């Protein structure tokens, strides 16, 4: 299939497909005698794999590493398992970060509450001095 048809099937721009090809993520794409690229069904699988990995927050180097680490094409069970393992690892890191942020939020809320409790209540009297000791 031509690049336009591939782009339409995947809902991506042709420039994105060309970029992935130039970045070495699609491997060698054969050309017809007229010079047009000729993509097969494997290109759809590979591009879908790349898209899914990017949606999960992986950068192109990590995706390239996954594609290289699997000796076979991305549609293989081995490649899918490698992606699954990477995504599970990333999920664990996100969950750890969420726990850290939750603790930090609680600490900040506590510090704010303590500081607010030490401050005098604001007065509505504009003639009163605004330079009161906070300690």
What does it look like?
- The protein has one domain: Multidrug-efflux Transporter Regulator, Chain: A, Domain 2, CATH 1.10.1660.10.
- It is built from five helices and no strands.
- With 135 residues, the chain is an all-alpha fold.
- The mean pLDDT is 83.
- The protein has helices at 3-10, 14-22, 41-55, 60-69, 77-118.
- Helices cover 62% and strands 0% of the residues.
Strand content: under 5%
- N to C succession of SSEs: HHHHH
> How does CATH name the architecture?
Orthogonal Bundle
Indicate the overall shape.
elongated
Give the CA-CA distance, first to last residue: 75 Å
Overall pLDDT = 83
User: What's the assembly state of these chains?
Assistant: single chain
What structural class is derived from the secondary structure elements? mainly alpha
Low-confidence stretches: none
Helical content band:
55-70%
Note the total helix count.
5
> Number of DSSP strands?
0
CATH class: Mainly Alpha
Count of spatially separate domains: 1
C-alpha Rg (nearest Å):
27 Å
CATH topology: Multidrug-efflux Transporter Regulator, Chain: A, Domain 2
Topology (elements, then pairings):
Elements (H helix, E strand, L loop, with lengths): L2 H8 L3 H9 L18 H15 L4 H10 L7 H42 L17
Name the features.
135 residues; mainly alpha; 0% strand
Would you summarize the structure shown here?
The protein has 135 residues and is mainly α.
